[in-house]
Design goal:
alpha+beta; 5-stranded antiparallel sheet; 3 helices; 11 strands; elongated
Length: 283
């Protein structure tokens, strides 16, 4: 009877602790969701270079009007443990004014402007002469909190999206098109966690602002323009996590609790009920 009560009590305590840990893990994981609940408005135009890329929050749809042959740039923040997916839709002009097809392509670059490969998705697509739109997508690898310097792994920071027509004929150039871009992320969790973190996310910061300002001044003097170009400064709504939390903490603690319960249960089952009453005390 005592053994049954002991096991029942231990089981209840373990279940309560495990529930609390799982609840905490869900809360922390939920804090990193990319639902686009911010108050910022989605941009209605696109940049023409990395330095003029329009910032867009994850979960919001950015739009832009352009002409075939233009390079369109947007930027978005991605944190450790996220697996971003970039989707783009290009609405084409009437087929009567578009005598031949073109190949549209979407590319994603990290904060170091390294082109990132897509795990899956249609990164480029040739349009049929009678098509009215073209859909593109690119799902990146999971963003890691830390990586070797020689690796090309996605790291926390600013990412750039470039949308353009990769192949055009002279008759295709200059036609009006409209583009829509949306970025969403899946929280992968502890399966992608690593033992390490960056000192700072890969975003344009103060270390590059002076050099960029000097380059802007030289460019302005050359072009006779005084307009300045702003660096991307976006970050996740809840700030950069730097990879300090993952659900591995939850499952590690849960494993420790279950191991302790197994030890208590094994001891209770094997220790017996004490000295039998028929055995004399002196023996």
């Amino acid at each position: 009877m005592r053994t049954t009560k002991l096991l029942a009590t231990a089981g209840l305590l373990g279940a309560s602790a495990l529930t609390a840990l799982l609840g905490a893990g869900t809360a922390f994981a939920g804090s990193g969701d990319s639902g686009g609940s911010g108050d910022g408005k989605a941009p209605t135009e696109a940049g023409t270079s990395f330095r003029t890329a329009q910032e867009v929050e994850q979960g919001r749809r950015a739009t832009a009007g352009a002409s075939t042959g233009d390079y369109l740039y947007w930027s978005f923040p991605a944190d450790a443990g996220q697996r971003p997916t970039v989707k783009a839709t290009v609405k084409l002009p009437d087929s009567a004014t578009r005598p031949s097809g073109a190949t549209w392509q979407i590319d994603v670059y990290d904060g170091l402007r390294r082109r990132q490969s897509c795990m899956y998705g249609t990164q480029s697509r040739a349009t049929a002469p009678d098509a009215t739109s073209v859909d593109l997508s690119c799902t990146l690898r999971t963003v890691r909190a830390w990586s070797e310097q020689w690796a090309n792994d996605p790291l926390p920071g600013t990412y750039y999206v470039r949308l353009t027509a990769a192949t055009l004929t002279p008759s295709d150039q200059g036609l009006p098109v409209s583009a829509e871009v949306e970025v969403t992320s899946k929280e992968v969790g502890g399966s992608a966690a690593v033992d390490g973190s960056l000192a700072a996310p890969l975003v344009p910061g103060s270390t590059t602002e002076e050099a960029a300002a000097a380059a802007d001044d030289a460019s302005d003097e050359e072009n006779g323009s005084s307009a300045s170009q702003a660096l991307a400064t976006g970050e996740p709504e809840d700030g950069w996590s730097a990879g300090w939390w993952s659900d591995r903490w939850v499952w590690t603690a849960a494993g420790g609790i279950l191991a302790a319960l197994a030890g208590i249960g094994g001891y209770a089952l094997t220790r017996g009920t004490g000295r039998p009453s028929r055995v004399p005390t002196g023996m």
